[in-house]
Design a protein that fits this description.
single chain, 227 residues, mainly beta, Immunoglobulin-like, six-stranded mixed beta sheet, 14 strands, 47% strand
Length: 227
């Protein structure tokens, strides 16, 4: 915690009305600690707050106000090289399927322009339904955070949804490219983070919902950074 005294700037008195006192101070870490980027998660939260205390005379109650401010990490020095990923989804490529023979036939192709993403730029790509024996009900993009917490005695790893965006509704035309476009929400994402005690990672799921209630999911790990 850092503390600065603004009373000399106000000369000890604040007149009635609006008074502005400009100030600034550098953010320094203590010891070998690191200032991680602001992040609001479920099991991991990284927050920075600023509290202003106004001491008043004996007959007046002291005033206090707290607000949160955002911290961004410095952009990485090396130029980020995009890592495009092509994917094909068929009944044979799915994992964790008990009765594969009961699945309808389908063929879905697509690509992501990059899986190592700049956090201030959208995730982009496209998806094409080549064929499907069953009508499609919806196609969605699901952004997931994976938080790992613990120590040498044991770790807990939990994945939770950040946002879900529908990119197509109904039985879409076959062989028609469907654009993939997702903006990363500022407070609920941060550059991929790994420390001694916790990790914050991100994934995106391409989810196809069929009218017979079959749910097809393809998972892609993401690496977020600031550039």
């Amino acid at each position: 915690m850092s503390q600065i005294d603004l009373s000399p700037l106000s000369q000890g008195k604040v007149p009635g009305g609006k008074t502005e006192i400009p100030f600034e101070f550098p953010l320094h870490t203590k010891g070998n600690k690191v200032l991680y980027e602001t992040y609001h998660g479920v099991f991991v939260n990284i927050q920075y707050t600023l509290r202003c205390d106004m001491k008043r005379s004996l007959l007046a109650k002291d005033l206090s106000k707290t607000c949160e401010f955002m911290v961004h990490s410095l952009p990485q020095k090396t130029k980020l090289q995009p890592t495009p990923v092509d994917f094909t989804i068929t009944p044979e490529t799915l994992q964790n399927v008990r009765e594969r023979s009961l699945l309808p036939k389908f063929l879905i192709r697509g690509h992501l322009d990059a899986t190592n993403c700049v956090i201030t730029k959208p995730l982009t790509g496209e998806l094409v339904v080549e064929s499907s024996d069953v009508a499609i009900k919806s196609i969605e993009l699901q952004l997931v955070r994976v938080e790992t917490c613990g120590c040498a005695e044991g770790y807990a790893r939990d994945a939770t949804e950040i946002q879900n965006i529908q990119i197509a509704e109904g039985d879409v035309c076959h062989s028609l490219p469907i654009p993939i476009y997702m903006v990363f929400p500022r407070l609920f994402t941060c550059p991929t983070l790994e420390t001694i005690n916790f990790k914050v990672e991100f994934e995106v799921n391409v989810v196809i919902v069929l009218h017979d209630e079959h749910l097809i999911t393809e998972n892609f790990p993401l690496k977020l950074c600031r550039a």
